[in-house]
Amino acid sequence: MSYIVTATSGHLGHLIVESLLARGAAPESIVATARKVDKLSALAALGVRTAVLDYGNPETVTAVVEPGDVLMLVSGSEVGQRVPQHTAVIAAAQAAGVGRIVYTSAPKATTSALVLAPEHKATEEFLIASGVPFTILRNGWYTENYTGEIEKARQAGEIVASVGDGRVASASRADYADAAAAAILDDSLAGKTLELSGDHAWDFAELAATIGTLIDSSVAFRNLTPAAHAELLASFGLDEGTVGFVVGLDANIRDGLLGETSGDLARLIGRPTTPLAEGLAASV
Ligand SMILES: NC(=O)c1ccc[n+]([C@@H]2O[C@H](COP(=O)([O-])OP(=O)(O)OC[C@H]3O[C@@H](n4cnc5c(N)ncnc54)[C@H](OP(=O)(O)O)[C@@H]3O)[C@@H](O)[C@H]2O)c1
């Protein structure tokens, strides 16, 4: 029986493999996969097996998955393509006799108005309907999503958004990766859906203050109306779709859709989640 992890050429997948090893999984029990196996030399050097697995090519799933394996399906990064990709992977893994699939979803994916929820909802529903034992990890926001704000704050002395006093319960990618590793190794989590988020929900005034401390400079948070935010983003040359996406996400934050703190993540990893300041400092 093997633990097969997808998208290990990406940040989260790579960290999941490292967490599996840290949690005591034997290197030879792990198959780190990616579209391009030549991106996996650092993981191969840790003793894990590597293989090609491309969401757009289900035969690559059939070639890797063996009966009883646990498949960690990290959600794809090609927004708009994810439903056909994820469902093709799940169907191929099921045909190969996969023992359980662990999937990284989004907060309250089946009921949330979050702009990113529909592809995760469709994937969750397909996975559950397949009858394959599953564990769904509804990952909240990564702290690393805000790394880019540090340079902007350094240059402008402020961070700008249209989130109002909305809060974000972010955690570091390493926290979510450790949770994934814990879930992969624990068959008793079959049939469970976990809402994973950071222990503390911060607002953007706190984000600005935290970045200010990090760069040893005063940083303010300037809140805009959605219309003014859209106008500002368009003035930077962003296309209409991207502007709508960013302003829509800020509206989701304003509405509290990324601010819930269930405690599931800390419980699963057996320690508090990484604080905002520490997570940002680590990503600089
Ligand atoms: N919760 C959050 O805040 C948040 C933020 C951003 C993303 N996400 C989601 O979490 C996932 C993992 O995050 P991350 O930080 O690791 O993202 P990342 O570093 O951008 O990595 C994305 C990974 O997806 C792989 N991928 C894309 N299309 C694929 C395909 N057709 N077949 C196989 N692999 C494919 C990429 O492979 P290549 O190296 O071949 O491109 C890469 O390994 C993302 O894909 C996205 O769904 C969540």
UniProtKB/TrEMBL annotation:
Organism of this sequence: Cryobacterium glucosi
Protein name: NAD(P)-dependent oxidoreductase
InterPro entries for this protein: NAD(P)-bd_dom, NAD(P)-bd_dom_sf, NmrA-type_oxidoreductase
TM stretches of this protein: none
Lineage: Bacteria, Bacillati, Actinomycetota, Actinomycetes, Micrococcales
Pfam family, one: NAD_binding_10
Limits of the NAD(P)-binding domain: 9-186
